[in-house]
Amino acid sequence: MTQVSIERRDGVAIVTIDNPPVNALSQAVREGLERSFEEAATDDTVNAIVLICAGRTFIAGADIREFGRPIVPPHLPDVIAQIEASEKPVVAAMHGTALGGGLEVALGCHYRVAVLSAALGLPEVNLGLLPGASGTQRLPRLIGVERALNMMLSGKPVNAALALEYGLIDKICDDNKLLDTAIEFAVSKVADGPRRIRDMSVPDVDGNLFDETRKAIARKTRGLISPEKIIQCVESSTQVGFDEGCKFEREVFLECKSSAQSDGLRHAFFAERAVSKVPGIGKDTTVRDLSSIAVLGAGTMGAGIAYNCLTSGFNVHLLDNDDTGLERGATTIRKLFEGGVARGKISAEKLAEGLGRLNTSTNYDDIADADLVIEAVFENLAIKKEVFEKLDAVCKDGAILATNTSTLDIDAIAGATRRPHDVIGLHFFSPAHIMRLLEIVRGAETSGEVIATSLALAKRLQKIGVVVGNCFGFVGNRMLYSYGRENQFLLLEGAAPEQIDQALYDWGMAMGPNAVGDLAGLDVGYKVRQERTDLPDDPRFYRVADLLVEQGRFGQKTGKGMYLYADGSRNPTPDPEVQTLINEASGKLGIERREIEPREIIERCIYGLISEGARILEDGIAARSSDIDVIWTNGYGFPRHRGGPMHYADTVGLAAVYEKICEFRDRFGAEFWEPPELLKDLADKGQNFSDFDKG
Ligand code: T1G
Ligand code: NAD
């Protein structure tokens, strides 16, 4: 199939790209553009050119799949230069999302027309890249330096109305009038001829802008390479000519493209798109209609989940068996709405409309007609089984009964009903209305319909739904146990809480394990450990955490946990009392404390994750290693630019990871560090986890 075609109408050549799903600028498309613009340039019957795309969107960027290998000519900057050099006016006609290289192509055109619903952006920074086809030199010339910089550093698209205001586009038209409007516009520009952005000068700008921008984004872009490169490129546009600026841009673009960070972020991009491909669930699997959702338990999670459902358009019934709890939950939801209005995220009308779809009660009969029930009561199996027995009795046939349990056995909970095929785990992450991850836990009898409906629900809630199997802690929390275990051991062996947290924070984790424990509440983990009967018989296992909880130090919620939180602040301060407690515990356990280097802290905590991740793949609890990566980068603050724990292992090399884990086994014992068979097998074959996924 030709991916680029050309036809003529009224003396206008219409060059159409048709490369589903998003008209990415693959090598074939670049070649097709080169050929078509050559043809249009040399055809005397052609006075102007319109570039348009078939399908759901204008060009959504370079073909990211090509970035893992050497780029094959024609190179995009050359194709764009050819388009701009046209003596006949070229009009870009845009719909859907004109992104990255797609917007750069449009900036190579002389004029731009877009439909009202279009979005235009340079999201390369999200892939650890920068606009590498003259975008950093053209956009400042067209819309000004500051706006251009903001668009490139945020990676967020602007809508057509704002693009018109910026001068990024010349005309907006109705969604169904794009081609006609573009042809008419092209004809109207024949007399004017081309208007080349390269010939425009960069508007003056306050020289301090770049350093101020660096300061402003420092925290958010901590450890990332490409944001600084973007600033350097845009700064160069104010200092050197167009061609020299483009030359510099290309050099740093190629540097970013070959970086481990971009590789990690590109992996994350595709991994998040792969999660929706679930074995046994096809496009023909029935998705049930969901309009009314009941949320059971109005606590920390219940209130957040209810708010998320309300802001996604569902009718919500919040139920709790405790009036105070219910009132607290309803108040939390109202405050979340008011916070949204205060931040300008939602309108007062939306607040009223949203709260209008909320009902509350303590009576189970009031939720008999709910299409979906999401249970978020105490993390106690007996209580959850009792609740599901009640739900089974009152809820209509066909209702989906979901539990937000963080660790408990879905099959045991489903076993309390006569409809285990309608029971599923929907594991939200705190805060539920913010965290993008939704672990969808399939029980042994959960039906395909219920799984497919849960995936559709995740999309409506703007979550990334990852389907996983049923075991203790599913994927995320099961791996967290290994990560946390090593943290606990390191505390006893000589590392201070703040030292461990700093090492992992510097390595890229959003927060260290001890600060996370205090945030989530040390009592939550303690209660879970108390319920478990299969914990290792090792006196060191979560010893420090247990001692803190037994002293009432639950974390932020009690003003002290592993750290101190003065006057309700959320800033952790090391507490000498805790260090004394830890030193005494080491003494009682006969552990000789020693100096521990950051490298050992990182390797033990991260390789603990990788090792448990490999076991999860062996057990079939996750379908792909990339699913594990999506869970940890979206639910546990694992650095996205490292791609996730399994991708990180691939970048280190599984042979080296295996060797290190064997060393840990020999030093710390096989109970916790026996290398998984899968890891040994892949390492022996010189393969990695992405090969496992392909298999
Ligand atoms: N290259 C290759 N495949 C792509 C792609 C791309 N740029 N964009 C999307 N896909 C695939 C995706 O993997 C999925 O495949 C399918 O298309 C649908 O995507 C030189 C260096 C456009 C807003 O960063 O943000 O240009 O899973 O499920 O939710 O300066 O895709 O079906 O097999 O996401 O409707 C810059 C990336 C590239 C935009 C559509 N561009 N794409 O969202 O569908 S770098 C981007 C998106 C660049 C230049 C630089 C979104 C979307 P599959 P989807 P969607
Ligand atoms: P919470 O203690 O804040 O709230 C639980 C609520 O359930 C309380 O309001 C309580 O009154 C109510 N409740 C208890 N028994 C009930 C019953 N029989 N019928 C109706 N309501 C009842 O707890 P939480 O932190 O929101 O956790 C709820 C669930 O979500 C647990 O299973 C937990 O493991 C899970 N979870 C928690 C987090 C987290 O970070 N807190 C994250 C993910 C999942």
Attached small molecules: (2S,3S)-3-hydroxy-2-methylbutanoyl-COA, nicotinamide-adenine-dinucleotide
Average predicted confidence as pLDDT = 97
Tally of DSSP helical segments: 30
Please bin the fraction of helical residues: 40-55%
Number of strands: 19
Read across the widest sheet, the strand sequence of neighbours is 12-11-10-13-14-15-16-17
Unreliable residue stretches? none
Proportion of strand residues: 5-15%
**Largest sheet descriptor:** 8 strands, mixed
How big is the Rg? 28 Å
Shape: globular
Distance between the termini: 29 Å
Structural class: alpha/beta
Helix-strand layout with pairing:
Elements: E1 4-9, E2 12-17, H1 27-42, E3 48-53, H2 76-85, E4 90-94, E5 97-99, H3 101-108, E6 111-115, E7 119-121, H4 135-143, H5 145-154, E8 158-159, H6 160-166, E9 171-173, H7 178-188, H8 209-217, H9 226-237, H10 242-257, H11 260-274, E10 292-296, H12 300-310, E11 315-319, H13 323-342, H14 348-356, E12 358-361, E13 372-375, H15 381-394, E14 400-403, H16 410-414, E15 423-428, E16 437-442, H17 448-460, E17 464-468, H18 476-493, H19 497-507, H20 513-520, H21 522-531, H22 543-550, E18 563-564, E19 573-574, H23 576-588, H24 598-618, H25 625-635, H26 645-652, H27 654-668, H28 670-673, H29 677-684, H30 689-694
Parallel strand pairs: 2-3, 3-4, 4-6, 5-7, 6-9, 10-11, 10-13, 11-12, 13-14, 14-15, 16-17
Antiparallel strand pairs: 1-2, 7-8, 15-16, 18-19
Helix pairs in contact: 1-2, 2-3, 4-5, 4-9, 5-9, 9-10, 11-25, 12-13, 13-14, 18-24, 19-24, 22-23, 24-27, 27-29
